[in-house]
Amino acid sequence: MNNMNLTPIPQNYKNNVEWILGAYTDAGITFPNGFQKDAIQNAVGARKTNKWKNWRCDISLVKNEKGQYIIVEDSGTVGLTGKIIPISEIDKLMAQGSVLGPDERLSRFTSMFNSGGNTTGGGLFGAGKSVYSVASQSYTYYYDSLREDGVYVANVNRCGQVLAESLINDDAKKFIKDKTGLSEKKSTGTRIIIENPRKDLIDSIQNETIIPYIQESWWRIIERLKDGAAISVNGKEVFGSEGNKERCNTFF
Length: 252
Known about the structure:
- It contains 9 helices and 9 strands.
- By secondary structure, it is an alpha+beta fold.
- Strands 1, 2, 3, 4, 5, 6, 7, 8 and 9 form a 9-stranded mixed beta sheet that branches.
- Helix 3 runs parallel beside helix 9.
- The protein is globular, with a radius of gyration of 18 Å.
- It starts with 12 loop residues before the first helix and ends in a 15-residue tail after the last strand.
């Protein structure tokens, strides 16, 4: 029995992440509304401390010769820190019940169901990074990060499949440029590049209907964003709405 060769059970990645759509529907909210909450919450959880100085979360729509992308980018955060651990090793650690520590952000981001002990990064429904897959019609997002240690890393999640080992520095820059047509991220933090995004999400960014959702969800924090800190949509900074302060914010 000790010599058994075990392999991970087959999984349907699409079904594993599409529960998010049902969670939003059950809560009576649209996908763009749920998306902004969970995506911004991920950026909030990426802060090194509870301070907001120089923190930003920018949501944008980009179209180039490679395609159309929705980008969620945080700055003033620590980036995807930690060792470059091959996926096979991460899989073994998880199978053994090992906990990836809070500093192993890259390994946790590259795997499923790893919170790593960080208590500031939970999303509205615990959707975490899976929300980026659901936002893509091809269930694909690229991600890159300029870390606080100066190392630049990149990878992709294509319907649950990732590169066996995250790329670093020049290899990572070439990968992102070749696949998305985008230059590398130049500010410390993490960028999510969602391929072939859902039409309702594209529309909400283009017509700015996502902005009232952000104001309603995040007005308490928006009030505290000063000195370079901001949430923005297509480069337009989101300011608080007085009306949101007058009603109970059950979505916070």
